[in-house]
């Protein structure tokens, strides 16, 4: 690495998180690791560490993503969560990739194409994204699947894991699967990271899809729940239960100080004078910009034990106000232990999903495991 801007992925923390989730929620047979969007930005290279920690099925959102997982691991079952174009089915079949069926016509075409392929049925429970809505279609597909076009699972995606909306979605799922025997389906998976902790285990589900939680984000981490409790008291809202999971941060984003400039009073920095200096100011110039991190803004970075205000953003470079204690070559944390990804996402006004998937592929990923550092460029 010549340009010292990188995303660091702590594979031991990732494995710790997965092991803890499995321990706290031991009653599932299938633990899907959702690695869409290049493993939420962490990079597909993390897949084998996930498998070692107890993930026994991988889920992605496209055939391209499934094929990149297959390159990392030849055996792990992979499910594509979204329907794929018909021409892709043969490639999926050749690579042992499981597909999703969400309408009857597509299924009929699969039957007549003479494919040897495994599939899951997706049922729509109110997201209005993908999925079957008619129980006779669900029954038709279950009844007509065979050894070649073989049904392995049934699933849905919940928009909420608690309250009235959750109740409505579950009622819809039950109604839409009422003409089939769910007990005869090998894998039934409904919950994802953030809904898993919000209600009692669904008795007929034996799979769970884990995405954001593997990277250290639970629904209501204890530190947030304290603030939330105070807020709820003020607003009279019913407090949410804090998460029982104590997860470790997996993803940190670093760069280093490349240059330090002194800006005299009355001078400015950046295009069109983005920063006007009122006093004698030192600014650290760092080699990352919006082509590296699309959510970059006038937020903060952590250098030399302090949070520093960013004042200029360019495509490749960012500058922050510092003091005389900061030197060229000093490590800069964009997010990590001191400015946590949650803090950074709040500063950027987005959720953590958006934050961690906003680091572009120009930034190399550095994986830490057993003291070794492995750099991967996507
Ligand atoms: C169908 C499906 N299942 C599971 C997930 C994983 O969600 P989470 O990261 O909240 O676990 C996603 C992510 O968007 C998804 O689309």
Task: Walk me through what this model shows.
The protein has 12 helices and 20 strands. By secondary structure, the chain is α/β, with parallel strands linked by helices. It binds pyridoxal-5'-phosphate.
Please write out the topology.
Layout: E1 6-10, H1 11-24, E2 30-34, H2 36-40, H3 47-52, E3 57-60, H4 63-72, E4 78-80, H5 89-94, E5 97-101, H6 104-112, E6 117-122, H7 135-144, E7 149-155, H8 163-176, E8 187-192, H9 193-196, E9 207-210, H10 222-235, E10 251-256, E11 259-263, E12 268-269, E13 275-276, E14 281-286, E15 300-303, E16 306-313, E17 318-322, E18 331-335, H11 341-348, H12 352-356, E19 365-369, E20 372-376
Parallel strand pairs: 1-19, 2-3, 2-9, 3-4, 4-5, 5-6, 6-7, 7-8, 8-9
Antiparallel strand pairs: 1-10, 10-18, 11-14, 12-13, 14-17, 15-16, 15-18, 16-17, 19-20
The protein binds pyridoxal-5'-phosphate.
Pyridoxal-5'-phosphate binds next to helix 9 and strand 9.
Report strand %: 25-35%
What's the helix count?
Answer: 12
User: How many beta-strand segments?
Assistant: 20
The small molecules bound here are:
pyridoxal-5'-phosphate
Number of individual domains: 2
Q: Which sequence of strands runs across the widest sheet?
A: 11-14-17-16-15-18-10-1-19-20
Low-pLDDT residue spans: none
What distance separates the N and C termini?
A: 13 Å
Biggest sheet descriptor = 10 strands, mixed
Average of pLDDT: 95
Can you tell me the CATH class of the largest domain?
Alpha Beta
CATH topology of the largest domain: TIM Barrel
Radius of gyration: 24 Å
What is the fourth-level CATH superfamily of the largest domain?
A: Alanine racemase
Q: Quaternary status of these chains? A: single chain
Helix-and-strand structural type: alpha/beta
Q: Label the CATH architecture of the largest domain.
A: Alpha-Beta Barrel
Query: What is the overall shape?
Result: elongated
Question: In which range does the helix fraction lie?
Answer: 25-40%
